[in-house]
Amino acid sequence: MSLGSNPLRDPQDRRMPRIAGPCGLVLFGVTGDLSRKKLMPAVYDLANRGLLPPGFALVGFARRDWADQDFAKVVHDAVKEYSRTPFREETWQQLAEGFRFVRGEFGDGASFERLRETVEELDEARGTSGNHAFYLSIPPDAFPDVVGQLKEHGLAAGDGSSWRRVVIEKPFGHDLASARALNNVVSEVFPPESVFRIDHYLGKETVQNILAFRFANAMFEPVWNSNYVDHIQITMAEDIGIGGRAGYYDGIGAARDVIQNHLLQLMALIAMEDPASFEARNLRLEKQKVLSSVRIPERLDLHTARGQYCAGWQGGQKVIGYLDEDDIPNSSATETYAAIRLDVENRRWAGVPFYLRTGKRLGRRVTEVAVVFKPAPHLPFTQTSTEELGSNALVMRIQPDEGVTLRFGAKVPGTAMELRDVNMDFAYGGAFVESSPEAYERLILDVLLGDPPLFPRHEEVELSWKILDPIVQWWADNDKPEPYSSGSWGPASADEMLARDGRSWRRP
Amino acid sequence: MRVDLTDTNASTVSSALLQARLRAGSPTMGMVLTFVVVTDESTHDQAMSDARTVSMEHPSRILGVLRGARRGRPRLDAEVSVGQGASGETVLLRLSGELVDHPVSVVTPLLLPDSPVVVWWPTNAPEDPARDPLGRLALRRIADAAAATRAPTEVLKRRARHYEPGDTDLAWTRLTPWRALLAAGLDQHPVRITGATVEATRANPSADLMAAWLRCRLSVDVDLTVSDGPGITRVALHSRHGDIALDRPDGRLAYFTIPGEADRPVALQRRVTAELLAEELRRLDNDDIYQDAVQVLALSGRGRKRKAPRPPASESSAPPSARVAKQTDTRGRSKKASSS
Question: Are A267 and A210 in contact (CB under 8 A)?
């Protein structure tokens, strides 16, 4: 006998956290950095916050010759080193019984047969009820093999009430054609609502903060258009170089690595109209709408810039140039800095350029969106008193200290009428008392709950490639990136690119 | 930085706060609420330290109100600190003499403009928090029945009779993980529950609230039994198929039982006060579910073991009385309508 709804649940009971239903997570690529530094600690932190179901199972799949205990040891070490919440023996005990390891190759049918047996054994012993998510933390060229094997061995579809989901990390292809090919591979096996594309740069918290800021307030929306906004700068700067990612990075470059997914998603959130509701579908519709009205510059030579870091000093440390990094060919034309101008052709944004830039080994690590306003139409002050006065700006700081900064003019105290820019800061609450879950935790929890709103669907991925492909193509056909010294804010051509429009980059 | 003020008044404290902020280079304010901690000589260290921890998640102006001896002439001493391991500002106000009866006069000038006020009594909260002079300033009034020095369950019941929207109790906050797991158990195994058992130490207010919540949600009789603790040691929902149960013998690791399946360990550690407070401050609107539970508790206090007074809430999510109260409270900013 079963009841229609659970009497212990109530929509008014908002104190009660959402615990994922019985389920398991299968990790492909357990030996990778991401798995150890982010995914395993995130699983532990979720358990520590009481958000994982009792009986949760974590299955590792890799080529190593490991037993379940060896895998558990790896997870244990990763958790001890990288988790954000304190290590508690009881949380570990809750998880430990659910660890399984399957040794295998992506191309080997027998390995996946073992995986299927393991998953079935878990359903039996841990009560995961046939609900499993497959996290593909592996290079995209291995996707077809793995996804195909999942299908062949009956792992890709649940029966009746149970679910199977797949999680893909960026990059979602390296151009429109490859993104489509990748999507075809995945969508042949999994329906769109079971595919979760993860852009770990853009945590859900950030997206929700932006949406709340834009749509929960009355005072910003009236000026959020070309009548008041002069231009918008979206920056993601990293202070590090490529580290050990040479194999992935060379030939991909900054634009494909960051602009295609992260910066264009940010741009869509800043530029989109208000959605009919915050349901997944409506949010996606609005983002797609604005992405499809993006126009790239006609003169790509004048309105884009790219660079490659060379040796220098960054933050007090001597660092090597891109071409000196391990495994990077001396002739590499891969850009580590990219800046582009985009225009949005709609009523709200006509004539307001969006400048997107990203780079490695820049002055400091920062991600922000700056909305720069037009000058006041009339200044009833003498020329000398307003010399130091810049434009008003509203900056959404995304990393490292999430918050909002408002820049406006104020009088300098004293007898002279002297105006200067000041900043007003707001910081979103700190992360303490185990409060704010890390981006990966939110992502994994959303996958387990089947809650997809903020993940991009393949339509958005394809739209972003349509924007970026001609630019990257033009770069490939023309010259090499301009060198810039490590620790600076990028190549001179990037500054010239804005100077042509009579503007300049903010120092973020 | 820290400033000690002796024999002072609220406006001096106020300008000390301003000075401290200027001298620290006017760091970001961004404080979201005023957190009033009503405390005494023996507990104020711990209480203020908990409040400071919470302020990392909810940046706030913390006003510690320490009522000293009523003897002597009226006097206010204050310790003002800005920064120092707290995100926001902290003031410890020591009241003595006749002033101990007029703390509102000190607190009122120090409240942050146009933002919510939360008051917390770490030990002995008034019986009727909403009518307490300090409680009346607040949008949310946090008591902790378990910390009452005498007869905690009686204290909880008496306070339940005076319940007003905005009242809450850490004894209830402690239950959240339990409630979430029980609800998850019923999700996994949707059966009709015929009864329930709550097992805890003697005079445990959380156990009373758990029983009241189950009575209210499930319309079944709930047995309260006594164990050696710590805290709640077992909650079981009975059904024809067996029990959906949570056993926590050691206060840390629980065992989750569902009919027909093997027991599973689940971490269910007792949380520290700062974590409980952080959960409380996350929502400042009326907690309808708590309201339902305390109302059941208030009734059960008079006649022993009354059955649940209303049908299970699966059809309508909250009783009419809760809805009315909710309407007066939705925007949260205005002072509590005393009529509700």
Answer: no
Chain B residues within an 8 Å CB radius of A7 = 186, 193, 217-218, 312-314
Nearest Cα residue to B294 out of B197, B180, B165, B129: B165
A49 found inside a domain:
yes
Q: What is the CATH number of the domain that holds B297?
A: 3.30.360
Give me the percent of chain B exceeding a pLDDT of 90.
58
Residue A203, both tokens: 């945590």
The total of structural domains in chain B comes to 2
Q: Which residues of A form the catalytic set?
A: 262
What whole-number distance in Å separates Cα of residue A198 and Cα of residue A167? Answer: 7
Q: Where among A122, A147, A169 does a domain terminate?
A: A169
Q: Identify whether residues B200 and B55 lie together within a single domain.
A: no
Q: How far apart are the first and last CA of chain A?
A: 61
Q: Where in A137-199 does DSSP place strands (E)?
A: 164-169, 195-198
Task: Give the length of chain A.
Answer: 508
Tell me: the pLDDT tens digits for A29-64?
A: 888 888 888 899 999 999 988 889 888 999 999 988
H/E stretch holding B286 reads: none
**Structural domain of residue A375, as residue ranges?**
204-500
Residues of chain B contacting residue A90, judged by C-beta atoms under 8 Å apart: 252-253, 265, 267-269
The CA distances from residue A172 to A199, A458, A469, B30, in Å, are 10, 9, 13, 38
- Of B252, B265, B287, which is closest to A97 when you measure between CB atoms? B265
Q: What are the tokens at B73? A: 């002439």
Q: Which of A:106-145 have CB within 8 Å of B?
A: 125-127, 129
- Minimum Cα–Cα distance from A48: chain B residue: B267
Is the ipTM, as predicted for this complex, more than 0.90? Answer: no
Q: What is the pLDDT of residues B70-109, one digit of tens each?
A: 999 999 999 998 876 666 789 999 999 999 999 999 999 9
Whether the pLDDT of residue A474 is over 90: the answer is yes
Interface touch B314/A5, C-beta < 8 Å: yes
Q: Cβ atoms within 10 A of the Cβ of B29, count?
A: 16
Q: Are residues B56 and B67 in the same domain?
A: yes
| Number of C-beta neighbours around residue A5 at 10 A | 14
B31 vs A321, higher pLDDT: A321
* C-alpha distance across the termini of chain B, in Å: 43
